[in-house]
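Hypothesis: this fold can be encoded by more than one sequence.
Test: take the structure tokens below, design a sequence, compare later.
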């Protein structure tokens, strides 16, 4: 377990994802893959011909964010690679994450706004082979040596996730299993 994939996008959860991914990459002596997703341009039109269409283009904002984040990464003691992609968040993460061991996302699932983390996390969790680490937006660090909690339901998916997480669990101070 060494390849950590980080969703980079200028949103409320970016800083928490960034800090958690850095801590995880350092602890695993791994490599951080930063996937900078710029969503397709969004055009909103009432369809009735009243008022102008609204175009939402995030490419300038993402270019500014890229420069800022790459500057920060250059001051961190981690190996990293940057990938610029355009499209749907989940699809981009799934494509880039085919060789990832861990994918770092948000855990706050508010409706509306971009990225729609509920849809993104649901799709990534359902279709990725990687361990998905979902962090709170207020996370300032990720302590890999803390106590780990495993939610266990006995399913094949739970077994597969547990097997993939063993290298990370080996760093924990202890592991508790919760079964319902």
């Amino acid at each position: 377990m060494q390849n950590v994939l980080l969703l980079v996008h200028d949103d409320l959860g970016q800083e928490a994802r960034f800090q958690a991914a850095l801590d995880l990459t350092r602890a695993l002596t791994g490599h951080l893959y930063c996937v900078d997703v710029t969503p397709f341009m969004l055009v909103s039109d009432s369809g009735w011909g009243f008022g102008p269409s609204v175009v939402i283009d995030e490419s300038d904002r993402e270019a500014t964010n890229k420069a800022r984040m790459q500057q920060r990464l250059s001051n961190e003691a981690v190996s990293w690679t940057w990938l610029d992609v355009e499209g749907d968040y989940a699809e981009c993460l799934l494509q880039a994450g085919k060789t990832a061991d861990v994918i770092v996302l948000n855990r706050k699932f508010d409706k509306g706004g971009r990225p729609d983390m509920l849809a993104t996390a649901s799709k990534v969790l359902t279709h990725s082979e990687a361990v998905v680490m979902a962090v709170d937006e207020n996370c300032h660090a990720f302590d890999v040596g803390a106590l780990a909690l495993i939610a266990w339901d006995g399913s094949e998916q739970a077994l597969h996730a547990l097997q993939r997480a063993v290298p990370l669990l080996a760093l924990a101070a202890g592991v508790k299993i919760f079964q319902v």
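DSSP finds five helices and nine strands in the chain. The chain has a mean pLDDT of 84.
Hypothesis status: open.
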